[in-house]
Structure formats: structure tokens, C-alpha cells
Request: fold
Amino acid sequence: MLPKALSSVVDALGLLPGVGQKTAERYAYYLFKSDSKIAEEIADALSELHSKVKSCPVTFALIDADEDISPLYTDDLRDKTTVLVVEEPLDIYAIEATHGYKGTYHVLGGAISPIDGITPDQLHIKELVERVKKDKVKEIIIATNPSVEGESTALLLEKVLHEGNPDLKLTRLARGLPLGVDLSYADQITLTAALENRTNL
Reply:
């Protein structure tokens, strides 16, 4: 039987998504046998997580607690008339890493999923509609995930945004087969997207 303190760490780590019992035990034992400073650094970082990080009231991206609005919105070099819509805050960093996008962002806070109890009114769709009017947005780039939930959310966004803004340009990130993937391993959604987005040779 594990000592109580070690068992408590195992239980806590087991709360993380994708971390099973064995993995939690390995992590906990690693922290125990390593320099105590490692565990202290992790504990200090976790203790500040909720007090020093908050959500931007405009874009819903993650920002430092002492910031009012995300720099990805306030930066004068950012084009406020172009908004890329993502499901979660971390999706922004994947786009930013390309250094190829100069517009702003809008985080929905998830995707429609009746099974998980996530309904449209729980997402930041209303705020997106308000931004379209306030910032005189010309283009919305829908970048939801290529999943059933992501597709359902994208379809709803198209409907809601076009209702009050018939001249608004709505686009979606190109989808299809990534390089190096064998056709036999591709899922149905990816293959369908690849067919729909086929190009001329």
C-alpha cells in the first residue's frame, strides 16, 4: 500500500485527462525521487494558474490577469475586420505559430455537443455577432475542428452570421488529407473534406 502523501499525489494526477492509474503512479514516484525543487516549482506554478490567468472579455483568448484585453486584439497591426473563430484558446497558438495570419480571433469556448450537454447558448456566439457589427467585420474564418461537433458548430455559425449580415464573407480553413497519410488510414470526415476541396492539376 502506498504512503498516504504519495497516494494523494497519484489521485490528484489521475484527475488529468488521459492520465490513467499507472501513469499517475509513475509521475508521482518521479516527483518523489527527483529533486524536491521540481515538485515545488510545479506546485508554485499551479497555485498561480487561476489567479494570474484570465479570459479576454472581447476575444475570450487567455491573457495575463493584469491585462484588460488581449494584445492580439489591441495591436494596431492586427486587422479587426478579419476574425478567425476557434473552439478553444489553445487553438490560437497553433495558428500564431505559422506567422501567416494578421487578423484577430474569437474563441467559442467549445463546440456543440448534446451528449456532453454543450448547447449553442453556452458558446460565445452572441458575442461574435456583436463584434461583427461593432468592428465592421468583413470576413469570418471558421476554424472549428474537423469533427462531428465541429462541423455542427460551423453550420450553425454560418446560419446565424448570414441571417443579419448577408454581405459578410464566410470562409473555412481548407480541410483534407495531410501529407504522408495513407488513404486506408484516413477517417470518413477527412476523406469527405478532401473530395470536396479537390483542386485542378
Notes: The chain has eight helices and six strands.
